[in-house]
Specification:
- 49% of the residues lie in helices and 9% in strands.
- It is built from 7 helices and 4 strands, in the order E-E-E-E-H-H-H-H-H-H-H.
- Strand 1 and strand 2 form a beta hairpin.
- Helix 3 runs parallel beside helix 5, helix 4 packs antiparallel against helix 5 and helix 5 crosses helix 7.
- The protein folds into 2 domains: 44 residues, no CATH class; 95 residues.
- It has 175 residues and is mainly alpha-helical.
- A two-stranded antiparallel sheet has the order 1-2. The chain has a two-stranded antiparallel sheet with strand order 3-4.
């Protein structure tokens, strides 16, 4: 069967969880998100808020992912993103800490498998929180940005990780 548009984008196939409400982390205003929104501008404070449930995980299983997303489809597969993040973290963190992080990541994956979360953002946040704890928030932020700029992390994944870092450490990007 040929689809006129991506079935994941077609609202006829959405569930009630695909449109949801969350609060602006800056001012507390209630906001509406659709699963396809990368960011939504808060109508109260005007800041752009990353959709923590934004998810292109369909690229991991959809037979049309290559046509829809091009070569970026490979980069959106959670296993591919996790490997890139682990490789970068290995250059920064000591081996014992890396082993502990791998265990923590497996445990987190098991815990959130049934939830609608952006798995690459969650996995990345675990590693980058460890980097921030060991080397400082700025180091974690810089590495996320480097990986985004080189294409190792898709922009929406990098933005989600940075948003999590901001929320946890109240880190402000330096110009």
């Amino acid at each position: 069967m040929q689809f006129g548009k991506c079935p994941g984008q077609d609202t006829r196939y959405w569930t009630h969880d695909d449109i949801f409400e969350d609060y602006c982390p800056y001012c507390g205003e209630e906001m509406e998100f659709w699963k396809t929104d990368l960011r939504v501008k808060c109508r109260n404070c005007g800041k752009k808020v990353v959709n923590q449930r934004f998810n292109l995980s369909c690229a991991a299983w959809c037979s049309f992912a290559e046509e829809c997303l091009g070569s970026a489809a490979d980069n959106l597969k959670p296993e591919s993103i996790r490997k890139k993040i682990e490789d970068r973290a290995k250059d920064i963190l000591p081996a014992p800490e890396m082993e502990e992080l791998k265990k923590e990541t497996e445990k987190a994956i098991d815990e959130v498998k049934t939830e609608k979360v952006n798995m690459p953002v969650e996995i990345g946040s675990i590693y980058f929180n460890a980097i921030a704890g060991a080397k400082g928030e700025e180091k974690a932020w810089v590495v996320v940005e480097e990986m985004r700029e080189t294409g190792e992390l898709p922009p929406q994944i990098a933005e989600g990780i940075k948003e999590n870092l901001k929320n946890k450490y109240e880190y402000t990007e330096r110009s």
